[in-house]
Amino acid sequence: MEYILETKELTKRFGKEEAVSKLDMKIKKGEIYGFLGPNGAGKTTTIRILLGLMKPTSGSIRIFQENLDTERISILKRVGSLVENPSYYPHLTAYENLEASRKILEVPKARIQEVLNIVGLSDVTNKKVKGFSLGMKQRLGIANSLMNNPELLILDEPTNGLDPSGIIEIRNLINRLANEAGITILISSHLLSEVDQLATTVGIINKGKLIFQDSIDVMRRYAQQSISIKVNDSEKARNMLFSNGIKTNYENGRILLPELADMEIAEAIRILVESGVSIYRVEEEKRSLEEIFLQMTREEEDD
Amino acid sequence: MIKNLLCADFLKIKRKGFWFLTFLGPFGVVALQMVNYGVRKDYLLQQSNDEWGYYILNVSTFTPLALVLGVVILTSFMTSVENETNAWKQLIAFPVTKISVYLSKLTVLALLLFISSFLLMLFTLGFGMILELQGQIPYGKLLKHSFYPYFAVTPVLALQLWIAIVSKNQGVPIAVGVLGVILTYSAYLLPDWMIWKWPSLINEWDEPLINVLLGVGVGSLLYIIGMFDFVRRDVK
């Protein structure tokens, strides 16, 4: 399999502290790669290294099958990026901000209007960025990252600090870019819910280490289901089930059945009904991805 | 690449007062002589038979001070444009080398200061003519006093740019700058090796050209050191 971006044992040390530790990140063409981790896990550091803003202490990075260390310029010509808070020149208009980038990137002037249309800022083209809302600045940042028609887009926390409607806007925009323009996207976030509906692949980083990297479907499989039952006499119900070979857990006045096949659940309920226990509720409890994410990062800490 | 960066840098300094300062510096220096000659023209004309020479000397008393002040303010402005929203990370994530980014910043500053020096020459000449000074206009001296300080100030420019670009706290370059201005003000008392003395064109051998050559030489050296330090560092 050919990867658009591949790091091998990427490590970055600040003094004694290891911010990124032996990271093996793999991104396939056309993917939306959700790069997740709590604040301070090393996401931004990793992204800065990927863009050549920081030099890794050790390890290698290949982007478009080329070595970042030696081919930085030719690689960056095909990469668009937005790192952390948007950078802009407040005293310049939206157009002038993009014009400054255009001059460096040597793309045609028409591209400015194109990217402004894509991010929906065409009606504020000639307004100074000073007066923009955070959402608009963020969109200008994305417009800037699209100037050179990138094949790989690296977005570091693009929805940070935005209100819910702003987050949805950015999410739709990213979806459109991936589906319509076929851009491979690396998007980092500390909130799983943000990339949940976007990402095709997820990488989870905690304390500088990549603790999970696979498709989002594999991650969803971690979302074990369980059936919770509420009855009038929990003690009796549990004993009845146990004597029939069904192990249960007890939590907050509810009996929890671990993941069982439909037939086994039917069986358990039949036993309860026949034994005369009143069943108030039978519910399916699904762990959200958010909980899995939290659990994963917590497990890592317990080790 | 460097041409593109220069175009972008000139765009970025729009509406920031760079051009106004470029004009204000030389105008201020000559304006001081407007006051001086306005108040006591007769007295001043009596001081020397060489009216033009004496006038140019008077103008150039304040040139080093204005120049060093200009260097400090412009370099600080220049880096504040990128520092304000930490645009360095965006700039350097573009397909450009850090060497060219640094060179571009220096070139813009050097060009602005060159324009200032050129304006200084024009203003000096212009006001001299208005004063109707006697004798031939000493063009050679005029050129020397307008452009020699410009070359002699190169080390200060290279030093200030280096400090301003790598400092996280902009108080540092300002503090060094203020100290530099004070040192320039007391150039007469300084030993010859201090770079802040050089724009005054004074030295032991009474040969201004030494300051020019030393300035360009040491300036280039400081520029190269600063550039490599910038390349070596991680971007904030």
Automatic annotation (TrEMBL), chain A:
Short name of any one Pfam family annotated for the protein: ABC_tran
CDD domains the record matches: ABC_BcrA_bacitracin_resist
Occurrences of domain ABC transporter (ranges): 5-232
DNA damage listed as a keyword: no
Domain of life the protein comes from: Bacteria
Nucleotide-binding keyword on record: yes
Classification via SUPFAM superfamilies: P-loop containing nucleoside triphosphate hydrolases
Recorded family membership: Belongs to the ABC transporter superfamily.
Protein name: ABC-2 type transport system ATP-binding protein
Native source organism of the sequence: Gracilibacillus halotolerans
TrEMBL record, chain B:
Residue ranges that the Swiss-Prot or TrEMBL entry lists as coiled coil: none
Keyword list, A-Z: Membrane, Transmembrane, Transmembrane helix
Record protein name field: Permease
Membrane-spanning intervals of the chain: 18-35, 55-81, 102-127, 147-165, 172-190, 210-231
CDD domains according to UniProt: ABC-2_lan_permease-like
Lineage start: Bacteria, Bacillati, Bacillota, Bacilli, Bacillales
